[in-house]
Write a structure and sequence with these properties.
This protein is an alpha+beta fold. The chain is about 40% helix and about 20% strand. It has three domains: about 270 residues, no CATH class; about 110 residues, no CATH class; about 60 residues, Arc Repressor Mutant, subunit A (Orthogonal Bundle), CATH 1.10.10. Strand 13 and strand 14 form a beta hairpin. Helix 12 packs across helix 14, helix 12 crosses helix 15 and helix 13 runs antiparallel to helix 14. The longest helix has 20 residues. The structure holds zinc ion.
Length: about 450
């Protein structure tokens, strides 16, 4: 694809229990118009309460995670427009010409962050029926505005994915309600911005960029100029649709909100939030690779979920990190996937995995046994060492027992032995599998393989 410049406005619902300016609850499945009060339905004479502390905590945390400078004074604005979803006729926001956004001049994974701000959500309006549900009116929203630093849809897709992971580390945004993006796209020579509104998934963001860039290229090739306009992404048609010319853009008549004071964010308050913030996913990944010698793919997966990352870090304090990484990324995730469970649903603790992997590390149990034990641990944790002793699961190493089982299996599988001698590797796997089954998985698979190979060669 030809040259393209992309900037994003990412909107998300803050993870909060109460609305921004009143005490109404946030409940996703509530009956329409049940979590409402005079403030969030803008009854005459009603005044907003001070913005909720949990929303401020979260928005400052987001700003800090994105390396923003946090303004010490926050000034809410009224953004006016006249739609049925906005009972007051204005939306309260810390954006617009006169405001001081919460965070400014940030950067995340090489992309500049212009600002991070906080605003209230309008109600949910159904234009077809005229129905309005005010439950959503007053939900706290975050808006993250980037500089037009992206140069491909693939880069945007990867960045948004990492942004979502990073916000999930601090549980800042409601994961079920997802994020929405407005995407600014421009191409040479004029780089005139076209804004595409309401793109609702990471997949759609990439599709919208590719479609819009191609549309603009066709216009430039025809020797015409791209219009300065706002378009909408149509999910069904998979194309951008004209909404309005920029010169017709709405004048929102921003004015400072007279019913709210300037909110002070003290140095102490900011520091108290900074103290609670975790290392970010990309920093964890880098540390895992550089300091612990973990494979980049393993490090990427382990750092994609903070619970998994924290579990790994605890286990890797006691167990060789590469072994720990392999077991968590491959075996634990396999068990979770098979049981259709999330990590937080398991009672399993780091000490159980440490106990299990100590036995693997010291070759007291076979990997096959360890896999089966991990499956059981995921169902309900138990003391691993005791269980191994009680059930007699310790590895069989070079004992007379193992030799005997090998001889029996080799004798009983004449055809497989012949096939192997003719060069069929699969036949050897079959014989190893048979012995493994007889030992109930208690043999060391690699040693067993060597042992069988030697015996067959002897016999031949
Ligand atoms: Zn309310």
């Amino acid at each position: 694809m030809a040259e393209v410049k992309v900037g994003l406005e990412v909107h998300g619902y803050l993870n909060a229990r109460r609305k921004l300016f009143c005490l109404c609850k946030i409940e996703k499945d509530a009956e329409p118009n049940t979590n409402i009060c005079p403030v969030c339905t803008a009854q005459p004479g009603s005044k907003p309460m001070l913005p909720s502390k949990e929303a401020l905590d979260r928005i400052i945390a987001i700003g800090l995670m994105l390396d923003c400078r946090i303004n010490s004074r926050l000034l809410f604005q009224r953004k006016h427009y006249s739609w049925p979803d906005l009972p007051a006729g204005y939306q309260r926001t810390i954006s617009g010409s006169y405001s001081f956004p919460v965070g400014v001049e940030g950067s995340f994974l090489g992309i500049g962050i212009t600002d991070v701000h906080l605003e209230e959500d309008p109600a949910r309006w159904e234009p077809e029926t005229g129905f309005v549900d005010y439950n959503r009116s007053g939900y706290p929203l975050v808006e993250i505005v980037t500089k037009p630093d992206f140069t491909s849809s693939e880069q945007v897709r990867e960045w948004v994915k990492r942004l979502v992971t990073t916000l999930s580390y601090i549980k800042a945004v409601d994961p079920e309600m997802g994020i929405k993006c407005d995407v600014n796209i421009s191409i040479p020579p004029a780089f005139l911005r076209v804004e595409v509104k309401n793109v609702n998934s990471i997949k759609s963001i990439a599709a919208a960029i590719d479609h819009e860039a191609a549309r603009q290229e066709r216009i430039v090739k025809q020797g015409k100029a791209v219009g300065h306009e706002t378009r909408a992404w149509n999910e069904q048609l998979q194309e951008t649709i004209f909404m309005r010319r920029k010169e017709q853009a709405m004048d929102y008549m921003y004015i400072p909100e007279p019913d709210l004071p300037v909110i002070d964010v003290s140095e102490d308050y900011r520091k108290s939030i900074a103290k609670t913030l975790p290392e970010r996913p990309h920093e964890k990944k880098e540390r895992y690779v550089k300091k612990l010698g973990i494979d980049a793919t393993d490090a990427d997966v382990l750092s994609s979920d903070i619970l998994l990352a924290e579990l790994f870090e605890k286990v890797a304090e006691k167990i060789e990190p590469v072994l720990a990484a392999r077991w968590l990324r491959q075996e634990l995730l396999r068990v979770l996937h098979y049981n259709k469970k999330e990590l937080f649903e398991l009672e399993l603790e780091a000490r159980h995995i440490i106990a299990l992997l100590r036995l693997v590390e010291s070759r007291k149990i076979s990997e096959e046994t360890a896999r089966r034990l991990l499956e059981k641990l995921a169902e309900k944790p138990f003391e691993v060492e005791e269980y191994v002793k009680k059930e007699g699961l310790a590895i069989i190493t070079g004992s007379a027992d193992l030799e005997k089982i090998c001889s029996e299996v080799i004798a009983a599988n004449e055809k497989a032995v012949q096939d192997y001698l003719k060069g069929e590797e699969k036949a050897l796997n079959f014989i190893v599998g048979q012995v493994m089954a007889k030992t109930k998985g208690r043999a060391d698979a690699r040693k067993l393989r060597e042992l069988i190979q030697a015996r067959i060669k002897q016999a031949a």
